[in-house]
Amino acid sequence: MAAMRSVSRLLSSRALSTTVKRGYAEEMSFTFASGNQIFYEAKSVRQVDVPSFSGSFGILPKHVPTLAVLKPGVVSVYENEGNVKKIFVSSGTVTINEDSSVQILAEEAHPVENIDASAARELLTKSQSQLSSAANDQAKAEAEIAVEVSEALVKAAE
Amino acid sequence: MLGRFGSAITAVAQNAPMQQQQRGMATLKAISIRLKSVKNIQKITQSMKMVSAAKYARAERDLKQVRSIGNGAKQFYEQAEIAPPPDAPQKLFIAITSDRGLCGAVHTSVARHIRTELGKDDKNIRIVCVGDKSRAILSRIYGNNIILSANEIGRLPPTFIDAAKLADAVLKSDYKFASGEIVYNRFKSVVSYETQTLPVYSLESVVTAPKLSIYDSLDDEVIKSYLEFSLASLLFYSMKEGACSEQSSRMTSMDNASKNAGEMIDKLTLTFNRTRQAVITRELIEIISGASAL
Questions:
Q1: Record's superkingdom (chain B) (predicted)?
Q2: Which of A47, A110, B216, B250 is most exposed, with minimal Cβ within 10 Å?
Q3: A124 lies in which domain range?
Q4: Partners of residue A99 in chain B, C-beta under 8 Å
Q5: How far apart are CA A68 and CA A55, in angstroms?
Q6: Phi first, then psi: what are they for A80, rounded to 5°?
Q7: What is the CATH number of the domain that holds A83?
Q8: Which residues from chain A sit within 8 angstroms of residue B212, using beta carbons?
């Protein structure tokens, strides 16, 4: 009797530990916040694709810890339920930590469907003319960034 | 015996109305002037309370959206266990206050936190003052430690661009700091806030952190941009927290001021009416005694 009880306890404890472990392996605590809105907060998602200056990459649970700087572009979030959400970001950072938590912090972010394509094209021509008329290095650099962002905006809106 | 006392009393009584008359007239006027000014003050404090209540509502709504940015930016420093290098004591303190006063002790508590740190060691600490209030408080004793100060804070809600400009100015300043702290008031509820700090690290202290090796594919350029952005987001977050606690604290202190003014008005009205009655009574006595003397 005593032996059986100890066995059963052993079994149950093992079952518990495996579930915890599996939970850890498949879960990703995903936070996506921008200056104007919170999109996800410590939510579990299947995959996240981000554009970064060191190349675009996808993040799955248990990704190796890393840091990256966001490039203007579209972040795609594959939710557990199967929907894909596309969100445009202007700039920001991606942090993937050891505990499989992912933070995307963006300066400005909006869902792609909210982008007005004609306004984006207008912005692009405006920033291009700004670039050509830039007087000093700083103004030129600022205009270059504006062109980059609006190019990405136009691409995202299409 | 009695007669002697009686004469003394009449002498006093004779003296008193004259004094009373002079003082009574003057006080009536003075009291009404004071009453009016206290009433005006109450109007001002009441409208300031209304204004800051509206601003507070907005600041709190904004703050809810920003909290996860602040927590997210802080997360990396905690996860990577970055600590200030022991051999580089240069520190930077960023005081998050605003230009406006009349909001309780929000600004002084930030300044006090920095002052205690400066009291321990004022050689290796430099200050960046955000908002005129912290500059006014800190420049009296530690004017030489201030390297930067920003104003025009508090009139409008802080934006990310403000924070980015500030972060840029801090990074471009020629002061080489190893670590630092952003001192701000964390908003807890309408009636309470807490002075807290957020960490700031230089590129060197992050690169030399022992736990950084677990992070994959990093080069200096990425870390540098990452730190710039994370400083901006931390500043943005702390400015939002500071603005929210400032407005809520102004709201409560203006509410208290209105209550106190109300109390003063009650007391002054009472004194005013009493004095007015005394003047009327005295005039009546004068008329009656004048008539009976005829």
A1: Eukaryota
A2: B216
A3: 117-157
A4: 79
A5: 10
A6: -60, -30
A7: 2.60.15.10
A8: none
